[in-house]
Specification:
- It is a single chain.
- A hairpin with a 5-residue loop joins strand 11 and strand 12.
- The strands form three sheets. This protein has a ten-stranded mixed beta sheet, sandwiched between helices. It has a two-stranded antiparallel sheet with strand order 6-7. A two-stranded parallel ribbon has the order 13-14.
- It is an alpha/beta fold.
- It has two domains: 185 residues, Isopropylmalate Dehydrogenase (3-Layer(aba) Sandwich); 163 residues, Isopropylmalate Dehydrogenase (3-Layer(aba) Sandwich), CATH 3.40.718.10.
- The protein contains twelve helices and 14 strands.
- The longest helix is centred in the middle third of the chain and has 16 residues.
- The protein binds 3-isopropylmalic acid and manganese (II) ion.
- One of its GO terms (biological process) is L-leucine biosynthetic process.
- Catalyzes the oxidation of 3-carboxy-2-hydroxy-4-methylpentanoate (3-isopropylmalate) to 3-carboxy-4-methyl-2-oxopentanoate. The product decarboxylates to 4-methyl-2 oxopentanoate.
- This is 3-isopropylmalate dehydrogenase.
- Its EC number is 1.1.1.85.
Length: 356
């Protein structure tokens, strides 16, 4: 089992280090190799996704990714910005299916900004299409407008697009995931305004006919954003495009208490996957040893389950995380009165102890 470890920027190295310790404690045979990515790689070699890093990722069974980005790179040309590393990996590895579960652990019911009764027992799965949509659509750029409200002025544009096979394959992923859960899929679109998302809705509906045991409903993205905070437990599997999925998954993360708790998996059609916390590089707290490593540790558990065929080891990690929460240990992002505040390393150590 070959794992590429790409720690990245900001809190990335701190949180990945804890996840690596947990993996090493499992008594499984991993071949782990680390490579720079994002701003760290730009500093070292002038490119956020150096060819050697990309090759390491491609040759691995799975990639464990920390986070990339820092404000100090905001003025670089777009191809050199840290974010291009994660976008490039998604594209080059064909990681079209992004799983972002939002689970509210019993012990964190009170850490959510919503009323406890709204989030207690919450367990939803956002499935975000990850290699299409306006993120990757061409053409894009800047030019002089020839029409629109201000012809002759400078303008910028992006292209929102989805092909039938792209929608079909992510729809299959969503319906199959729902079959293993409560058999309900909500497809989120903006069909009332956008051609791309009328097509999305039509194709998802067609694919849904192959899954008569799964209940499918459709929701406009603005309404979905509202329903997520009004009555989140109404959702089970949510499937949506790249941009809406980006936004809704951040929103859903706060239902669980902290974005610092949310793992994610990005898979291609060979079950090769990239696993990363749903949060970013948090440069404001980097190097302070206070970041929550649990999202990354839980991402490692997803990796064991989805790409490395080690479901028992995944269960062990998840059980250990719950045990640590039950002990009352909290990083600052999930801290509340009556619990014990700990740092990144103490949290990692506690998970290790609970594993044994
Ligand atoms: C995410 C991030 C990325 C995205 C950025 C860093 C490119 O926000 O994984 O959700 O927009 O997809
Ligand atoms: Mn995001």
């Amino acid at each position: 089992m070959k794992i590429a470890i790409l720690p990245g920027d900001g809190i990335g190295p701190e949180i990945t280090a804890e996840a690596v310790k947990v993996l090493n404690a499992l008594d499984l045979k991993f071949e782990m190799e680390t490579a720079p990515v994002g701003g760290a790689a730009y500093e070292a070699s002038g490119h956020p996704l150096p060819p050697a890093t990309l090759k390491l990722a491609k040759d691995a069974d799975a990639v464990l990714f920390g986070a990339v980005g820092d404000w100090k790179y905001d003025t670089l040309d777009r191809p050199l910005r840290p974010e291009q590393a994660i976008l490039g990996l998604r594209k080059e590895l064909g990681l079209f299916a992004n799983f972002r579960p939002a689970i509210c652990y019993e012990q964190l019911t009170h850490a959510s900004s919503l009323k406890p009764e709204l989030v207690a027992g919450l367990d939803i799965l956002i499935i975000r299409e990850l290699t299409g949509d306006i993120y990757f659509g061409q053409p894009r750029g800047r030019r002089t407008a020839v029409d629109g409200h201000f012809p002759g002025s400078e303008e910028a544009f992006d292209t929102m697009r989805y092909s039938r096979p792209e929608i079909e394959r992510i729809a299959h992923v969503a319906f199959q995931a729902a079959q293993k859960r409560s058999k309900k899929v909500t497809s989120v679109d903006k069909a009332n305004v956008l051609e791309t998302f009328q097509f999305w809705k039509d194709v998802v509906t067609e694919v849904g006919q192959q899954y008569p045991d799964v209940q499918l409903d459709h929701m406009y993205v603005d309404n979905a954003a509202m329903q997520l905070v009004k009555e989140p437990k109404k959702f089970d599997v949510v499937v949506t495009g790249n941009m809406f999925g980006d936004i809704l998954s951040d929103e859903a993360s706060m239902l669980t208490g902290s974005i610092g708790m949310l793992p994610s998996a990005s898979l291609n059609d060979q079950k090769q996957g990239l696993y990363e916390p749903s949060h970013g590089s948090a440069p404001d707290i980097a190097g302070q040893g206070v970041a929550n490593p649990l999202a990354t540790i839980l991402s490692a558990a997803m990796m064991l389950r989805f790409s490395l065929n080690q479901p028992e080891a995944a269960d062990r990690i998840e059980t250990a995380v719950k045990a640590v929460l039950a002990q009352g240990l909290r990083t600052p992002d999930i801290y509340s009165a009556g619990t014990t505040k700990v740092g990144t390393r103490e949290m990692g150590e506690a998970v290790l102890k609970a594993l044994k």
